[in-house]
Amino acid sequence: RKEVEQDPGPFNVPEGATVAFNCTYSNSASQSFFWYRQDCRKEPKLLMSVYSSGNEDGRFTAQLNRASQYISLLIRDSKLSDSATYLCVVSYGGSQGNLIFGKGTKLSVKP
Amino acid sequence: NAGVTQTPKFRILKIGQSMTLQCTQDMNHNYMYWYRQDPGMGLKLIYYSVGAGITDKGEVPNGYNVSRSTTEDFPLRLELAAPSQTSVYFCASRSPRLAGDDEQFFGPGTRLTVL
């Protein structure tokens, strides 16, 4: 069974904090990796793709370790607007692009 | 572009009733997907389609049916609704440039309660 595991949290942090989320996946044949963001009672939206070389988008840094089947997301200088659930997502289905979603890690940034 | 639209936003069904959840996208995407999300759980794939006339089962297809007669529309049919189908249903679409490496765009969801 293909699975993606995440710490459900919640992570309660003050504004300006640095917070890290971790994720592991079970299928070594997984091809593509993503972090999606889901606000309360809203649809998921792509935050960033994750590459083996690591990638950064402003305050957000994502890392992938294929050997350990491990994905991470680092958020620096947390903002109130970062409060959401962060979904670790893995693609395994070839050209169909079928996705396996983790249950999500809830982040709450406090003033 | 409206993106991916879903109707209805909310629905309450009685056990045994049937309904169709509508999904439409105006981005000319070939690939479309239906997911369900139970409280505190990740999204699970119900059905997907790689183009008009082509559909296939995902992880949790039992109790559902789909059709894809046009590129734009991908309705999900529930027959004989059961309480276990109480969930939030998301439709998504994708336009692949590279295999497996493209963003899925989600609709706003349909919240379904079966009593």
Describe this structure in words.
- The complex is a heterodimer of chains A (111) and B (115).
- Chain A contains no helices and eleven strands.
- In chain A, 38% of the residues are buried.
- In chain A, the strands form two sheets. In chain A, strands 2, 4, 5, 9, 10 and 11 form a six-stranded mixed sheet that branches. Chain A has a five-stranded antiparallel sheet with strand order 1-3-8-7-6, with no helix packed on it.
- Chain A has strands spanning 4-6, 11-14, 19-25, 32-38, 44-50, 55-57, 60-65, 70-75, 84-91, 99-101, 105-110.
- The radius of gyration of chain A is 14 Å and the shape is globular.
- Chain B is mainly β and 115 residues long.
- Helix content of chain B is 0%, strand content 49%.
- Chain B has no helices and eleven strands.
- In chain B, the strands form two sheets. In chain B, strands 2, 4, 5, 6, 9, 10 and 11 form a seven-stranded mixed sheet that branches.
- Chain B is globular, with a radius of gyration of 13 Å.
- The mean pLDDT of chain B is 93.
- Chains A and B meet through strand 5 and strand 10 of A and strand 4 and strand 5 of B.
Content-based structural category of chain A? mainly beta
Strand content of chain A is over 45%
Shape of chain B: globular
Q: Major β-sheet of chain A, in short? A: 6 strands, mixed
Beta-strand proportion of chain B: over 45%
Percent helix among the residues of chain A?
Answer: under 10%
Mean pLDDT of chain B: 93
Order of helical and strand elements of chain B:
EEEEEEEEEEE
**Biggest interface and residues each:** A-B, 26 and 26 residues
How many whole angstroms does the radius of gyration of chain B measure?
Answer: 13 Å
Give the proportion of residues in helices of chain B: under 10%
